């Protein structure tokens, strides 16, 4: 196991009928900006319930944060924050709303050149303070409700940002709010959470037994309860899916182990260039990436096959092949097509993706930096 | 899965050679009280290393916090804190030192009747502030380094206390500091961590799949790497043992599930009355308790047998019996004798334990309150 730091001060409020507690979670004197997306939280009544639980607090609404939140949209919210002396941000929505709110929280404390906040990658954004924020998470997927990460789109590129200042002070996770989700978004969320675990798990082995077993536990739960949530209104499965998605990216499985976020890096390009939903891009890239990286990931792939997919027969190579095939079939079972051609992307499109990654400096992916752009191209061609 | 809250703001600094970071973890202007136990941290040089990393800060030492820390000892430290305007407490040691430091942090903000702070059980101690504290954890066992709990002995009784104010601000977990531990304490720590997991896991099933699998992952790791740590200086195993012990009681496996702390409640009496080390009392009580509670814990015991001990053959009852026998054999493999007679406790002693629990109002144990004192007596008689 490698040395590590772990810190996560977000308070999780999990379960049905918890909105009444907003009153004690947000300072009584706070002037609150409630942020949301395309309006489904309005249509399904979630927003109204949230606001009615804010009591006498002054509340301003900001809707219209789009999927893959755009810098320009978020800057409009920053203006609202500044003009109205907002002192608490309440995100009501999925990953995009929560991610967007985190950027707003940071950008509101900067006076100019807000776009430069996006250029620090996984180093903390160099600002001294942020507006405190909380989340009502309506889509289990990104884990944004319990981490300090955000992804913002600027000039058609996706930029990851992070700062310890944007851990949500609290996140309410009420499975009831997910029943109004389109089925497709549930599928995307399952794929997203699954790949979050994989990127922290399928790397070089370092003997971190607790973390490995936690990862395997989340993967098995997603394999069991993801499809049930996709196909039905089963509440017990939905709760497990929600907590799996949060646990997948709150840091606890990633401590002390190498991490390989290649699938996300490649997937982000597919979203930025072709508008494919984030979870879907990961499901397209992952099986192909694992096939291309069998040698580098050999030991962990065997462990994945045996412990997650319960594959006991065959040689190690056969187990690995089966495990990757089962992973792809799992995504397909959620009606996620894992072929680029389905999304109209041909060889030329692949070349553009690779060229763009080069422009962005994304030329050495994986935990050792050995996943070069030739290999990215090979992975994408194999995913046609 | 039940509704739950999760909150744990402790920063973990895990790994070798991390003491240099104390300088940024503790405010530069802090006046620090360094607390420790019987002096082994002094003999083995840990204390000196810690203090040398505190730089120019004013440092006062307070040693002599005993195993099962005594109210009277801790009140002496409270006096030191008040007289010297201490504004940071740094615990260097195992569970007793960390638990004691938490009580000191709370008691220092009370003016009188400090003993009444002990009488709130698992409700937060009603004080408004506490002195901030950090830990250098030298004994993986209690999990105190990453939770808000403490157990203090007063008038020969053990009192649990808790307050969100006593989450350590940070805990340094350096496996190197555990190499000087007596073997017996390693064994006790393995037993303690194992039973912490069991008390959150072997209860009524509520379909909390992530939590169950996290628990099983920690148990399997303790079964594998506990004995290796007991018998050798293997660093990789020791790291996994350390992180298992912390993960066992930082709240993450206990969210949304029923908890049954009966083994601890009974074990605390055995420590308070007969001075048996905490971990050992748990190892004595648990196998006997599980045998007496097969019916109530049936479903989870089968799951425990199959998933933790990999028992696949036999009827469900046979699996359960095997799993309990293997659990007891596991403790015995660490040279922990699991018979009360070994510790000189006879029928009369057992009667005294039961009478004392009655006096303390501990008459309805388990998650449903159905474990009465008759059953406690039966459990202890079977553990003779």
Set out the fold topology:
The structure is a homodimer.
Chain A: E1 4-6, E2 11-14, H1 22-25, E3 32-35, H2 40-43, H3 46-52, E4 59-62, H4 71-83, E5 88-93, H5 95-107, E6 133-137, E7 149-154, E8 157-162, E9 170-173, H6 183-201, H7 209-231, H8 235-248, H9 262-274, H10 278-292, H11 298-308, H12 316-333, H13 347-359, H14 373-382
Helix pairs in contact in A: 4-5, 6-7, 6-8, 6-10, 7-8, 9-10, 10-12, 10-14, 11-12, 13-14
Features of this protein?
Rossmann fold, 2 domains, 6-stranded parallel sheet, 384 residues, globular, 46% helix, homodimer, Dehydroquinate synthase-like, alpha domain, 9 strands, two-stranded antiparallel ribbon, alpha/beta
Q: Average pLDDT value of chain A?
A: 96
Whole-number count of domains of chain A: 2
Assign the CATH superfamily of the largest domain in chain A.
Dehydroquinate synthase-like - alpha domain
Tell me the total number of β-strands of chain A.
Answer: 9
Q: What is the percentage of strand-forming residues of chain A? A: 5-15%
Give the oligomeric state.
homodimer
The proportion of residues forming helix of chain A, as a percent range, comes to 40-55%
First CA to last CA of chain A: what distance?
Answer: 37 Å
Low-confidence stretches of chain A: none
What do we call the CATH topology of the largest domain in chain A?
A: Dehydroquinate synthase-like, alpha domain
Shape of chain A: globular
Main beta sheet of chain A? 6 strands, parallel
Task: Tell me the number of helical segments of chain A per DSSP (H or I, 4 or more residues long).
Answer: 14
Biggest interface and its residues per chain? A-B, 41 and 41 residues
- Computed over alpha carbons, the radius of gyration of chain A is 20 Å
CATH class of the largest domain in chain A, anyone?
Mainly Alpha
């Amino acid at each position: 196991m490698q040395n590590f730091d772990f810190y996560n001060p977000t308070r999780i409020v999990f379960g049905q009928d918890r909105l009444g507690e907003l009153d004690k979670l947000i300072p009584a004197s706070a002037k609150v900006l409630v942020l949301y997306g395309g309006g489904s939280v309005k249509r399904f009544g979630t927003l109204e319930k949230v606001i009615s639980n804010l009591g006498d607090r002054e509340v301003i609404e900001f809707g219209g944060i789009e999927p893959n939140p755009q810098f320009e949209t978020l800057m409009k919210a920053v203006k609202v924050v500044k003009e109205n002396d907002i002192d608490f941000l309440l995100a009501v929505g999925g990953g995009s709303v929560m991610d967007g709110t985190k950027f707003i929280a940071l950008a509101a404390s900067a006076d100019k050149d807000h776009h430069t906040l996006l250029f620090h990658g996984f180093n903390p954004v160099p600002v001294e303070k942020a507006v405190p924020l909380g989340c009502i998470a309506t889509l289990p997927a990104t884990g944004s409700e319990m981490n300090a990460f955000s992804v913002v789109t600027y000039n058609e590129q996706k930029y990851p940002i992070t700062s310890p200042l944007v851990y949500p002070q609290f996140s309410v996770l009420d499975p009831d709010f997910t029943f109004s989700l389109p089925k497709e978004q549930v599928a995307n969320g399952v794929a997203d959470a699954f790949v979050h675990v994989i990127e922290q798990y399928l790397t070089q082995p370092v003997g971190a037994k607790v973390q490995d077993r936690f990862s395997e536990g989340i993967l098995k739960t997603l394999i069991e309860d993801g499809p049930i949530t996709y196909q039905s209104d089963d509440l017990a499965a939905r709760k497990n899916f929600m907590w799996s998605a949060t646990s997948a990216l709150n840091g606890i499985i990633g401590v002390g182990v190498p991490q390989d976020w290649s699938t996300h890096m490649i997937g982000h390009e597919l979203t930025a260039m072709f508008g494919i939903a984030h979870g879907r891009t990961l499901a397209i890239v992952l099986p192909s990436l694992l096939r291309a990286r069998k040698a580098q990931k050999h030991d962990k792939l065997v462990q994945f096959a045996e412990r997650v997919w319960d594959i006991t027969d065959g040689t190690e190579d056969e187990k690995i092949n089966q495990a990757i095939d089962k992973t792809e079939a799992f995504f397909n079972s959620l009606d996620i097509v894992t072929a680029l051609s389905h999304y109209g992307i041909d060889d030329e499109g692949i070349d553009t993706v690779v060229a763009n990654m080069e422009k962005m400096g994304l030329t050495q992916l994986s935990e050792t930096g050995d996943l070069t752009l030739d290999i990215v191209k090979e992975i994408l061609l194999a995913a046609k």
